[in-house]
Write a structure and sequence with these properties.
2 copies of one chain form a homodimer. Helices cover about 30% and strands about 20% of the residues of chain A. Chain A has about 140 residues and is an alpha+beta fold. Chain A has a single domain, classed as HIT family, subunit A. In chain A, strands 1-2-3-5-4 form a 5-stranded antiparallel beta sheet. The model of chain A has no long low-confidence stretch (mean pLDDT about 95). Chains A and B meet through helix 2 and strand 4 of A and helix 2 and strand 4 of B. Strand 4 of chain A pairs antiparallel with strand 4 of chain B.
């Protein structure tokens, strides 16, 4: 794992504002969305100017698959959720990022998608920090 | 490419009803959602009983990444869309399937997600067949 961000990569300002850093993996920065309605992680490949998964190199695509699955498995194990929702949308924020969301039958908006559903509910500062630590421990 | 479906695999009845077959790839059946509001493809890995990408074998995950990207590139080239949305949700239909949708600024619901947006608008039979042929030619 890389201890520092990749030189020359700048995180999108909206992603930075809406989420908290959890850890750097080999390709991606793993971030936690600051929305306590769902356990919601985001993987951001540290590659400047990439908008689509298919614009990554084959090696980076393989890394992204590996990191997505590692994070999805950890999140499912940790939350006991019914279903993982993973998606690369990017209609608003164009910098490539992959959502990994833990969904359960009793969560807001189930079985609909989380994107565009209602208003974000931020965590208390101590709670988001604690949750990020739990995710790190689960990886 | 396999000319026939994998023995022992049964397509989910709802997926079958809502989409038309385009082609069998190495791992997945590629299907076209019968909703003319968006160019919307679905990849269904021919593996019985799998609900999450991370439950596929590492080889199957690599195949899925490859086929997803091949299809996404072809769809983007063919439609000239602004953004590909790709997602594995499965909150309603649990059989693993990956959505690949061509999105543009003037399409219904932009920039929100397509899932849960309004009512499906089926193609005319001749139109969906023609569109499926165009996709096959673009791959």
């Amino acid at each position: 794992m890389l201890p520092v961000p990749t030189a020359g990569f700048t995180l999108d300002a909206r992603l930075e504002a809406d989420s908290e850093q959890v850890i750097w993996l080999g390709l991606c920065e793993l971030r936690l969305m600051n929305d306590r309605r769902w356990p919601w992680l985001v993987l951001v490949p540290q590659r400047q100017g990439i908008e689509e998964i298919h614009d990554l190199t084959p090696l980076d695509q393989t890394m992204l698959t590996f990191e997505t699955n590692m994070v999805a498995q950890a999140l499912k194990r940790m939350t006991g959720c019914t279903k993982i929702n993973s998606a690369a949308l990017g209609n608003v924020v164009r910098q490539l990022h992959v959502h990994i969301v833990a969904r359960s039958e009793d969560d807001p908006g189930w079985p609909g998608p989380v994107w565009g559903h209602g208003i974000r509910e931020p965590y208390k500062a101590a709670d988001i920090h604690r949750f990020a630590q739990r995710i790190k421990a689960a990886l």
